[in-house]
Amino acid sequence: MAVLVEHEKRKKEILEKSLELFIEEGYEDVTFQKIADRCAITRTTLYIYFKNKREIFLWSIKQLTGGIEKSILKIMADESLNEIDCLKKIFSLICAECEKNARLFHVLLDYLLQLKKSEGNPRERVKRRVIRLEHLLTTVILRGQKKGLIRNLPVKEIDALLFSLIESALFKISVYGEQSLEDSRLLIEFTIDSLKTSQE
Predict the structure, then answer these.
(1) What is the mean pLDDT of the chain?
(2) Spacing of C-alpha 90 from chain mean position
């Protein structure tokens, strides 16, 4: 059991240090050897955990998004929040994470552009990564509709609208290099407020 715990701990450390390296140097310039050096291990040891740089990068992103998902689940479990406030808090968290990890999103954009050149449209890969978030938002929206707090509009369209606002925020961070998403936050809050029924 201790060996398994140690293995998982080492894997997590590799992912954290690799993510720092990707942020510092960009996806293209990071090599498997640089990752091994940063982690103070040999390439052979690194191969025990991961088969290549791409796998490490994707696992690093998954670890980051997993942390965001845990925070969203905590917000959803907070019974003091109604569904409108829950949505606002979730999207505020997402904007804060975008600001905090701005450089990472720039690296991610470079990775997706590289992926597009080599494998075609990366849309399906991105879609697979955000499907869980869509399900969580759908849950909050449906709860709000059942309670009469959110207008009875098609949930799929509400999800698409809110996601397009997040995509816009990510574009501002990764392409325009904006540091603050305050205008995006206000737009998202305005949009969420427009979903309220007169009862809320």
Answers:
(1) 88
(2) 12
